[in-house]
Amino acid sequence: MLVVLICIELSDVIFAVDSIPAVLGITQDPFIVYTSNAFALLALRSLYLLLSRSLQQLHYLRHAVALILGFVGMKMILDFVHIEISSSLSLAVILSLLAGGTIASIIRNNSRKANGSGSQDDHLLDEKLSHSA
């Protein structure tokens, strides 16, 4: 049991360290980088269950998260060449992408419910897309 606990905590630390470049894309303040990763360690396991259920119901959320990661990467590249994007603009872009993905997923789910449960081809396509992503 101790080995399992050590493995779980080690994976938490690895994921927290993995997110440091994303935080550095937003701020260079070491206090914010440290505290955001500390809170990420505290919330990682509890948020996993929420996110896994959300991804099942919100089909386009995965695409929105991919666009957010692309935005953070672009922001880091622009910061490297001394072009700064404000934090308020970054927050607006991230919230817009999350809201857009959520709203598009809700519209998709509502239209599928209105048309029935969808065709067999839709289910096969959704299954292929979820396995490839």
TrEMBL record:
The chain crosses the membrane at residues 32-51, 63-83, 89-107. It is a multi-pass membrane protein. It is found in: Membrane. It comes from Haptolina ericina. One of its GO terms (cellular component) is membrane. InterPro entries: Integral_membrane_TerC. Residues 120-133 have a biased composition (Basic and acidic residues). This is Uncharacterized protein. Residues 1-16 form the signal peptide. Keywords: Membrane, Signal, Transmembrane, Transmembrane helix. The keyword Nucleotide-binding does not apply. It comes from the Eukaryota. The keyword Transit peptide does not apply. Residues 112-133 are annotated as: Disordered. Pfam families: TerC. Its main location: membrane.
